[in-house]
Amino acid sequence: MPARMTGFIIGRPRAVLAVAALLLVAAGLFGASAAQHLLAGGYSDPNSDSARAEAVLNDTFGRGGLQVVVKLDGPAGMNMATDPTARAVGTSLVSDLEGLDYVQRPILSIWQHPSLSSALVSRDGSSTLIIATLSGGEGAAPAHAATIEERFVGERQGISVRVGGQGLVFGQVNEQTTRDLAVAEGIAIPISFLVLIVVFGGLVAAALPVVIGIVAIIGTFALLRLIAMFTDVSIFALNLTTALGLALAIDYTLLIVTRYREEVARGDDRRTAILTTMATAGRTVAFSAVTVALSLAALVIFPMYFLRSFAYAGIGVVLVAVVAALVLTPAILMVLGPRIDALDVRRPLRRLFRRPEPVARPIEESAWYRFVQFVLRHAAPIAIVTTVALLILGAPFLGIRFGFPDDRVLPPTASSHAIQQEIRDDFAQNLSSSATAVVSGLPAGDDLTRYTADLSRVDDANSATSSSGTFVDGRAVSPGDPGDSKGTTSLITVSTNLEPMSDAGRDQLEALQAVPKPDGATAVFGGLAATNVDTVDAIYGHLPWALGIVALATFVLLFLFTGSVVLPLKALVLNVLSLSATFGAMVWFFQDGHLDGLGTTPTGFLVATIPVLMFCIAFGLSMDYEVFLLGRIREEWLASGGSRADSDHAVAVGLARTGRVVTAAALLMSIVFAGIAASEVSFMRMFGVGLTLAVLMDATVIRMLLVPAFMRLAGRANWWAPAPLRRLHNRIGLSEGGVHDSATPEVPTRVG
Questions:
Q1: Which of 632, 636, 630, 662 is nearest to 649 (CA)?
Q2: Is the pLDDT of residue 349 over 70?
Q3: Residue 16: per-residue pLDDT
Q4: 356-414: pLDDT as tens digits
Q5: Which range, 234-238, 483-487, 561-565, 737-741, is most confident?
Q6: How far, in Å, are 1, 108, 234, 600, 708 from residue 240 at the CA level?
Q7: Predicted local distance difference test score (pLDDT) of residue 206
Q8: Which among 18, 46, 128, 284 could disulfide-bond with 631, CB atoms 3.0 to 4.6 Å apart, if both were Cys?
Q9: At CB < 8 A and 24+ separation, what contacts does 82-85 make?
């Protein structure tokens, strides 16, 4: 942080805090309704064939909206298809649905569509479905589904009526996410405060990072509301960016306050201590924020707004957290002065247990320093054993499978999940598994009839229906709906029992797409199987670019920070190793279902967007700790004589000085993400568990074992760069506390 800016802040700290308080109130009022402006979807690629099919369905045929399912359950022994009471109740519900202008046509029921009995009536006959789609897209359709649920749920003439479907899934996900956010904050903030008391010893010092974290949360809400005015933003951005803002704000403030107390302990007056702190720790915090923001920025290249919104919101929340830490923290420290150490709980505890006052000792006598020296002495075996262990933990990652989220992301007690599971278990067909072909250049006629019949012959296809009729194994069994053809565009619906997310569902979609089309006709397929395939393909298609952007940005920034090409490469390799182990655990728990999927419903795949999001966030956070650590190591190296022994000493001192604060920061950040792990939405729980493991593994196994081991093995080569790059770094490289790279100990351009 520029010295002039720091001088300005601590020259008028009360005015700075007063302006910040006014802005905070405005942000709180503006952001209070943020959740109402966020959406529950955004997982699919809007440029894909399945998205184009859905657009034609909606724009040309007035169909294709989010599905709503009304489920009627009668007493045991009742046949819902023939019972007059069931018919009366069912037709009344259909009539009520037809009276709602946001309910699209057709509305499917056994009484109007008896040919669909295997999909609309349960195997024992006691349950039936009424299926419709809702206009309004992901923004309005969930609210429409909630209105239908509120109006229709209950008992009519002894028949139970419940509501489910994709529209309700989206709405219930929104509601659950809002509740989960309150739970996560209720877990994270008080526990973080207790941990900070242990770290700092005083109540006032412990409260400061929490206050900055709360400021970051309020700013995040306002930011999300602002971004939602210009683009679609996922409802999950509320949980994830709030947690990220809280975690980063606490981390950054922890680093600043810890460095400030060190400077005061060395004898500096408060003003000088703040200036020195912001010139060293403040610069490290700013640089760390840039690395995290750039990792999140890579998400913008993905086409689905679920991920893109995290790029926008993630960069913004990092900005909120770093500004709050770099502006408010020095102002508060200046106002508090010595009172930052007030309400120290350690002194009365020492008196109570008759423990002596701690005596300041050289860093070389600390437990951290001795531990690092042990690692340095046994660098090779520690590096080998730890690397092998991480590779073993990461082995399940080789079997990772991506898929599209459905009702099973909600807990089994959610009505939309419960109803859909009953449909899977009790009905011969599941209409939500159907594929819809939108065929252009094919009006009603003989060519459409032949193409529909050909589609019905595909393996595991129950039937194919178009305006030409319904076909089973190539034979016409019932007439079609003329409304399925408009001009030269026709719809063909292929029903199947296959799970759309399974390999069999994907193979069947490929078989349908391979059926020869009439001359001049083109077809695109919609439905869950097509959406799943297109989403996964979009993830894989854009993933190499995202990984390349993150790797390149990280390498360049760490080079500018350290002047070395070895340290950035080491950081990339160790981060990939750590994240592989984390993702291996995610596959083992949430995809394969070990330990009961940690309380979720395993589906045999991971929601495709979440590992990508986890990677970018975890990679950025790991760079966060890398910068904290390398900043201190580099300070020692620049002040040394440049020998191999000096390199080892710099590593040991840097780790010893940062070990406590990095461990505390990791513990605090893991507490924040553990709050997300309490979520009832399965992929949010996976996200929370994954980031908790990633942070703890990075701060312990990587920073305390592999980093010193590999730096010991590399020796002076840690600081090597080709001569042209060294000269470039001397001109444009970033420096810590005003120390220029011209002071860097000479490192040979060729390492033997």
A1: 636
A2: no
A3: 92
A4: 666 667 788 888 899 999 999 999 999 999 999 999 999 999 999 988 888 999 999 99
A5: 483-487
A6: 27, 39, 10, 19, 32
A7: 86
A8: 284
A9: 85/157, 85/158, 85/159
Question: Buried b / exposed e across 375-414, counting CB within 10 Å, b at 16+?
Answer: bbeebeebbeebbeebeebbebbeeebbbbbbbbbbbeeb
Q: Establish whether the linkage from the previous residue to 106 is cis, with ω within 30° of 0.
A: yes
For residue 208, the SS3 value is: helix
Model confidence band, residue 205 (pLDDT cutoffs 50, 70, 90)? confident
> In this structure, are residues 277 and 266 in contact, taking their beta carbons and an 8 Å threshold?
no
Burial class (CB in 10 A: 0-12, 13-18, 19+), 138: buried
Q: Which residues contact 353 (CB under 8 A, 6 or more apart)?
A: none
Please state the φ and ψ torsions of residue 462, each to the nearest 5 degrees: -75, -40
Residue 328 CA to residue 21 CA, distance in Å, equals 10
**pLDDT of 686 strictly over 80:** yes
Give the DSSP letter of residue 231. Answer: S
pLDDT digits (tens, 9 = 90+) for 716-740: 888 888 988 888 888 776 654 433 3
* Beta-bridge partners for 438: 491, 524
121 backbone dihedrals φ, ψ, rounded to 5°: -125, 135
Cα torsion 170, 175, 181, 184 to 10°: value is -100
Average pLDDT over residues 650-674: 87
Residue 683's nearest CA partner among 603, 623, 569, 619 is 603
Tokens 């009832």, residue? 680
Question: Which residues, in sequence order, are bridge partners of residue 160?
Answer: 73, 155
- Counts of helices then strands in the chain (DSSP H, E): 25, 13
Q: Tell me the sheet residues that pair with 469.
A: 466
pLDDT at 748 over 50: no
The secondary structure of 433-472, three-state, reads HCEEEEEECCCCCHHHHHHHHHHHCCCCEEEEEECCEEEE
Q: How far apart are CA 346 and CA 692, in angstroms?
A: 29
Burial code of 52-66, b = ≥16 C-beta within 10 A, e = fewer? bbbebbbeebebbbb
Q: What is the mean pLDDT of the chain?
A: 87
Please give the structure tokens belonging to residue 165.
């479907």
Written as six digits, the tokens of 465 are 């229906």
